[in-house]
Amino acid sequence: MAAKLTIIGSGPGGYVAAIRAAQQGTQVTIIEDDEVGGTCLNRGCIPTKTLIASAEALESTRRAADFGIEIPGEVGYNHAKILDRKNKVVETQVKGIRSLFRSWDIRLIEGRGVLHSAEAVRIVQKDGTTLDVKSDRVIIATGSRPARLPLFPFDGETVITSNEAVQLTSIPKSICIVGAGVIGCEFAFIYRTLGSDVTMVEMLPRVLSTEDEEMSGLIAREMKKAKIKIHAGVKIEAVEKTSDGIVRSRLSDGKEVSSEMVLVSIGRAMNTEEIGLEGAGVKKGKRGEIAVNEKMETSVPGIYAIGDVTGTVMLAHVASHQGLVAVENALGGDAAMDYAVIPSGIFTMPEVGSVGLREHEAVEKGIAVNVGRFPFRGLAKAHAMGSITGMAKVISDHTTDKVLGVHICGPHATDLVHEGALAISTGTTARELGRMIHAHPTLAEAVMEAAEDTHGMAIYVPRPSS
Amino acid sequence: MNPDDIKYHRDHSWVRVEGKKATIGITDYAQQQLGDIVYVDLPEVETEADADSELSEIESTKATSPILSPVSGVVGEVNEDLADSPEIINEDPYGNGWLMVLDMSDPSELNDLMSKSEYEAYLKEVEEK
Question: What is the ipTM of this complex?
């Protein structure tokens, strides 16, 4: 008889787990109290990439004259149509997931799931009635939400989080973005391209502090070019809404930022409240996350947790892989999550794609490395395309020559980085990466040249002057 | 091409002095080597600059090059026109292509710089390498 699995949450963690389990003949029930697809599909990854596509289309059109294209009149945009497109893209994806559920006979119950034990989940459905679902195993995939500090007078209109930012019906004349991490930086470029006066406030000394320092530096430079103001190494001390529709944010260095809107993107809080964890005996970690081991097991046998709610690596693709590991273990297998190679894509303008060791991490860990760099402006293809900003950077082990990290800032960086991910996961050396034939003329040649540069052998780099 | 009334730094920048104010730019040789300039990263007014340390970065279609400050001082003014038209540097490196004005902290540093003839001799050496 097929095992029964209940999954609470249908984001990229939950829905991947559901489909994988159903593929193996499991009877799956998935519970969702908002919309299928979770944050990624409805408020995160997909909406933002869709808005970015509109921003990039606008930017390309503005530069059309550079390419010999003549557009009569001024280039503008219709925000309602941009939002409409975003909604349509999201809707299609949501319908797609629902349809996958139906095709695999995955029972979708819409309501709030509360854990009772590894065998039982109680759901309060949208019509108010309760439903008890019995199963053999449970996977908790309830995700995360934008973190809020009491310091900020959130009202969903002038002081907002990313949830509202993807639904704005008009672009504010000015916006202060608190937190220059991935989310803040992506929104900075979207709003700036659509005409907003953007100021960023970041507590840490640089933007995109999780990235290699050179990548942060390149994005900070591009922000400066785009006239996005950055206050780094400062905190917000007070936020005041005034009667003339302006929000005044006072910084710890005494400066003040006035803007029509404030977007707070300082991190995400895990959704662990009111889902029955305490009653079921599921232990939480120091930051309030559901504690899991590498098998995605919680402290209660038969109950697993995956995705943002575990506070491990808060990325959709990590949630999905954790889902695959959890399902394998829930069905009697023996899998473990490996966090060694996790590429990440940042959709700033230009993009950043990164995987593996950052250069400053090599220094901190005392790992002797070779570093190779290649600027896109050294590539004929980049010039042909008219996108010459940025560079590819390869970090390799000085002793073994194995590739340890690849960081790319520039056109299509989020796709190009995957060659680096493959190199790291297969133990490929920088020499092997550099000697593999890369088609000409492609942007991928930048990765090849950066790998060759780790040995000072890049072709399109002038001889260094003595 | 190289004017007489300015002093030259070995890193191919120039200084034109008026009292304690030093207007700084890059030489014709530098703009030729760089090619079409697409962006100039200028420091904020009131930034402190040290002689021989990086003051600015110029991006051209060929490369991104740091510009070393020929003298020490405080940035008093930057050329705002370069934001929209960085190509002015290619067109008029000694005139409208000026980068910034520093309030000098140690005018004696000017003695370490080259005159026009010294710079032109220096350029011959550089090109022969």
Answer: 0.85
Give the distance from residue A366's alpha carbon to the nearest chain B alpha carbon, in angstroms: 28
Query: What is the average per-residue pLDDT within A120-129?
Result: 94
Q: How far is CA A31 from CA A132, A321, A457, in A?
A: 11, 19, 55
Spatial CA neighbour of A10 closest among A129, A86, A123:
A123
Q: Which structural domain range is residue A284 located in?
A: 4-146+270-330
Residue A168 lies in a domain: yes
Q: Report phi then psi at A89, rounded to 5.
A: -60, -45
CA end-to-end distance (rounded Å), chain B? 22
**A460 is a domain residue:** no
One domain, residues A213 and A200 = yes
- Give A303-322 pLDDT, tens digit per residue: 999 999 999 999 999 999 99
Burial code (b: 16+ CB inside 10 Å, e: under 16) for B20-52 equals eebbbbbbbbbbeebeebbbbbbbeeeeebebb
Chain A CB contacts of B129 under 8 Å are: 465
Domains and CATH numbers, chain B: 7-128 (2.40.50.100)
A461 in contact with B, Cβ within 8 Å: no
Assess whether pLDDT exceeds 70 at residue A466.
Answer: no
A193 φ, ψ (degrees, to nearest 5) = -65, -35
Residues A277 and A249 in one domain: no
Residues of A in contact with B57 (CB under 8 A): 221
Q: In what side-by-side order are the strands of the sheet with B73-78?
A: B7-9, B13-18, B21-26, B100-104, B73-78, B48-49
Q: Note whether residue A463 is domain-resident.
A: no
CB of A395 within 8 A of CB of A406?
A: yes
Write out the catalytic residue numbers of A: 440
Q: What is the pLDDT of residues A382-412, one digit of tens each?
A: 999 999 999 999 999 999 999 999 999 999 9
For residues A140 and A170, state if they share a domain: no
Contacts of A221 in chain B (CB under 8 A): 41, 57
Task: Please state, as a whole number, how many other Cβ atoms lie within 10 Å of the Cβ of residue A41.
Answer: 24
Closest CA to A182 of A146, A135, A225, A149: A146
**Hey, is A236 helix, strand or coil?**
strand
Task: Identify which of A224, A377, A389 has the shortest CB distance to residue B41.
Answer: A224
Strand partners, A304: A139, A297
Q: Say yes or no for a CB contact (<8 Å) between B129 and A225.
A: no
Q: Is A54 exposed, middle or buried (0-12, 13-18, 19+ CB in 10 A)?
A: buried
